[in-house]
Amino acid sequence: MNFKPVFHVIAWLLGVVGLLMGVCGLVSFLHGESARVWSALGYSAAGTVGAAVLLWLPTRNEQELSRRDGLGVVAFGWLLAGLAGSAPFLLSGVITSPVAALFETVSGMTTTGASVIPVLENVPKGLLLWRSMSQLIGGMGVLILVVAILPFAGAGGMQLYRAEMPGPSKDRIEPRVASTAKMLWGVYLLLIVALIILLRLGGVTWFDAVCHAFTTVSSGGFSTRTASVGAFQSVYVETVLIVFMLLAGINFALHYRLLRGEFSAWWRDAEMRFFLAVFIVATLAGTIGLHQARAASGLEWSGALRQVGFTCASLMTTTGFATADYDQWPALLKTMLVLLMLMGGCAGSTAGGLKAGRVHVMVKSIFREIRLFMQPQAVIPVRLGRKSLDDELLLAIVSFIALFGVVTLAGVLAMIPFTADIETAATSAITCMANAGPGFAAVGPACNYASVPEAGQAILIALMLIGRLELYTVLAVFMPAFWRK
Known about the structure:
Helix content is 65%, strand content 1%. It has 21 helices and 2 strands. Mean pLDDT is 88; it is low at 151-161.
């Protein structure tokens, strides 16, 4: 790894993070909050920008980034950004533990949405905005923003783009990587502005609308209310959020092509069709199951559909908003929700998880193997849409899913000593690995992660980073070959 170009780009990243913290400090000051709050944001912003300048000056160079350098920028950049972003929580006294503050910030920047703050109504608006802002910059990826504003990255910009963008598909939608980054951020911001307007029309305050738009389109799930979206008690708000959560879970390149007039782009994409089909089937099956389980208590079909539809959209896009305590649902429905979390959204979206495309290919591969067992001489290709997938790509997808499972299982085993029951251990590891947020039992939608001891929080921080950066980016750092010149 070449340290100069790597840390030069990280300096730019820290500069962006510092400036956004400064904006949150200004909002806190204008809202008349205590000096301790806005000064905590202001000092953190000044310190982060100062550190960025001190890092930028000695690392100026003309060297382009290699693939290993791109991985280094992403791995170390996210960690340093998380450390910088945790300072306001500590300085303001809202969170007193450095590990818990880092957990909250990494949860934001990886768009996981797991929180250690028990009562959000007691948190000053400046810090609530910073929580939402951390998910805004983490959703599309602040490093993609850096690619857009760094013309000197040259061919190295592609290394950043490939290391940062989630999912197996990283096709460019413009000839130049910087143009692609700008277009993706343009679509991202367009969706955010549209959602802010629609939420405001539904009676949501400007502040809540902005914060929830940031955390919806980023598939983050941080709310300004302890009861999450359920606090609004609005069918309109929930319906709008379902639509935008699903949009955030679809490949943003498809949105861009649709805006350019390619109206069939969505329906030609096999991954997107599979993603929506899973949502529809899960919602219908879950509605039937919940209604049967709760009919005696007076739950009507419309109420069951409302709860299940929102929950399925929230968890399969790994957003993590809640309108119902799904921890109290039947075991079969809870199992379905875990599978939705693990699958996640589409490649090239802001959602986490394995990605719908990989799961779709895995399902097709299983059916192919069954047919080959019955017809050994048959030639049966695995297709994704109109494209036949070669064996090398199939092996890569299966290997990724297997590695994802192994790391998740290791996380579950590591969490057992730090939790009261196996359900908490398992779902805390799974949701952090999938960047989905709330789990079940002690970390369910009606609870938070404050009860997890610091050692357990440190494990979950690692899982959040590994899951957000898609395994190989983080694991490559521990390979000796990564450090060789």
